[in-house]
Write a sequence for this structure.
């Protein structure tokens, strides 16, 4: 007799546990203020990443097209995957000394693992991460970027 | 004709049926293949085949400098990236005999505990989903998002944050760091009981997990099962207690231990760890010193003295050991990783034998396997 009661009690307990779970889902079904999902492509304008978000590597240029990179190649040495290539040129200054300047700073986004060692190791703070996160492109070659703008040069006070 | 007949007879007499579970099976959480031998619906034996996501991380480490190794350890057990980073960093610091600032120790432990909660939340999502409760998946990820936001604000990335480096941290934490964690604790304390109502008390869940895949303490020790899976069997293996590192010696906390060792108690151990992690977080936040020092003074090129070094830490899944052999160069001569999931995987055969194939999903889910950590 006892086992029958236990059996029936078990059924009721089981159904009760299911109903208790359903109250949680029911609560969130009704409470429209608790919605956490975002409509992504529509909210693109409002969507703001945190300042430190490691989106992609950039070389900040100021208004007069000056950057801080002197082409020392420390970022290239510190990169674990070879996603940075620094091709530097030699120029002769007005005083007749030979001096190294940056030719092209090539960044392979497709190989980058966003460890942040390049930004950390840069002695002149020439590199930074942007908050751009939409990296999808149709052509793989577009992921190879040149970071220094055409016609840009080293900041004056650093060059002297 | 007679040969054909013989084959049919053999099949009838030996009704063993071998199927592959994986490598593309949703409940193996990655690319893991089980060779399962079935008798009817009952599992006779199970052979795990790993190596589908082998990347040779140990070998790659031999050609990288110590700061560069950090970003590879993220990709071992990607759900406890912080602890992996910490393991290598602590090993390098031990070799160089460097004492990191107190504040760094606290921040490392805080981030580790946050990562542990985030990892257990994702495990809860996936475990619920394996057993047929899709709702869990959404609720768990919703709360995990709060932790990932804290990581994103301070470390710059959400999952693979190479934030702990030999000698300290990559950069200082965000000024909102303390407040956002306190907010999260307040938020999650309110929502964690919902997890219990939704899944723990559920009758279907209880029937599918209780008294299933029982692992004795002896088995846990013999197979080297660490982490919550081992502690559910009564094996006190918490490295935070046994061999305290970073800021764990400064605070007092409870080690979650159960003696039952079945699937339900492996689940319960992880749920209780989330509660305990929040207590640890509060204690660490109260004691964390102010200031802005985030790194010890390090040489630009790190060269370890000749010798062998070992350091272990507690990740979300168990004990991670890092063994570095150095020949005095700036790259290690050999780097061996003792990963928790590799040991936890091979007890599967012992646990599942004699149970039904549907129970196999529950047992493998309760061990919380992360496949890149097995294959590495």
């Amino acid at each position: 007799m006892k086992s029958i009661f236990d059996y029936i009690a078990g059924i009721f307990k089981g159904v009760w546990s299911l109903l208790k779970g359903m109250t949680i889902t029911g609560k969130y079904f009704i409470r429209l203020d608790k919605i956490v999902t975002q409509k992504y492509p529509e909210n693109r304008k409002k969507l703001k990443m945190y300042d430190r978000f490691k989106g992609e590597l950039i070389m900040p240029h100021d208004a007069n097209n000056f950057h801080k990179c002197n082409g020392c190649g420390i970022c290239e040495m510190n990169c674990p995957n070879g996603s940075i290539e620094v091709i530097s040129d030699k120029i002769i200054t007005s005083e007749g000394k030979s001096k190294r300047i940056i030719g092209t700073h090539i960044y392979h986004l497709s190989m980058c693992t966003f460890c942040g060692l390049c930004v950390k190791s840069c002695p002149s703070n020439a590199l930074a991460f942007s908050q751009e996160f939409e990296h999808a492109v149709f052509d793989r070659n577009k992921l190879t970027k040149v970071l220094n703008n055409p016609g840009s040069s080293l900041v004056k006070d650093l060059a002297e | 004709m007679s040969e054909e007949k013989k084959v049919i007879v053999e099949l009838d007499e030996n009704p063993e049926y071998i199927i592959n579970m994986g490598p593309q099976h949703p409940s193996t959480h990655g690319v893991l293949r089980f060779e399962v031998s079935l008798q009817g619906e009952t599992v006779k034996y199970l052979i795990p085949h790993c190596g589908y996501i082998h990347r040779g991380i140990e070998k790659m480490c031999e050609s990288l400098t110590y700061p560069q190794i950090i970003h590879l350890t993220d990709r071992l057990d990607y759900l406890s990236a912080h602890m992996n980073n910490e393991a290598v960093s602590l090993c390098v610091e031990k070799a160089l005999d460097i004492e990191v600032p107190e504040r760094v120790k606290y921040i490392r432990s805080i981030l580790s505990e946050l990562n542990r909660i985030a990892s257990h939340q994702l495990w809860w999502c996936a475990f619920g989903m394996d057993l047929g409760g899709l709702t869990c998946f959404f609720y768990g990820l919703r709360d995990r998002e709060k932790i990932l936001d804290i990581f994103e604000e301070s470390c710059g990335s959400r999952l693979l944050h190479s934030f702990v480096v030999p000698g300290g941290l990559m950069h200082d934490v965000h000024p909102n760091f303390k407040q956002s964690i306190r907010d999260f604790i307040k938020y999650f304390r309110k929502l964690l009981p919902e997890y219990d109502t939704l899944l723990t008390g559920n009758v279907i869940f209880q029937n599918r997990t209780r008294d299933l895949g029982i692992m004795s303490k002896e088995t846990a020790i013999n197979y080297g099962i660490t982490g919550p899976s081992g502690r559910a069997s009564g094996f006190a293996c918490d490295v935070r207690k046994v061999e305290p590192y970073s800021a764990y010696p400064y605070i007092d906390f409870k080690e979650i231990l159960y003696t039952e060792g079945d699937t339900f108690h492996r689940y319960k151990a992880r749920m209780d760890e989330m509660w305990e992690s929040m207590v640890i977080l509060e204690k660490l936040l109260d004691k964390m010193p102010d200031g802005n020092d985030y790194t010890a003074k390090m040489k630009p090129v790190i060269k370890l003295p000749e010798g062998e070094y070992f350091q272990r830490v507690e990740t979300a899944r168990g004990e991670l050991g890092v063994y570095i052999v150095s020949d005095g160069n700036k790259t290690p001569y050999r780097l061996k990783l003792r990963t928790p999931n590799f040991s936890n995987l091979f007890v599967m055969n012992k646990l599942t034998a004699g149970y039904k194939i549907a129970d196999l999903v529950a047992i493998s889910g309760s061990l919380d396997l992360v496949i890149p950590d097995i294959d590495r």
The two ends of chain A are 99 Å apart (CA to CA). Chain A has two domains: 2-34, 56-159. Chain A touches chain B at residues 13-15, 17-18, 20-21, 23-25, 36, 49-50, 52-54, 78, 80, 113-117, 120, 129 (CB under 8 Å).
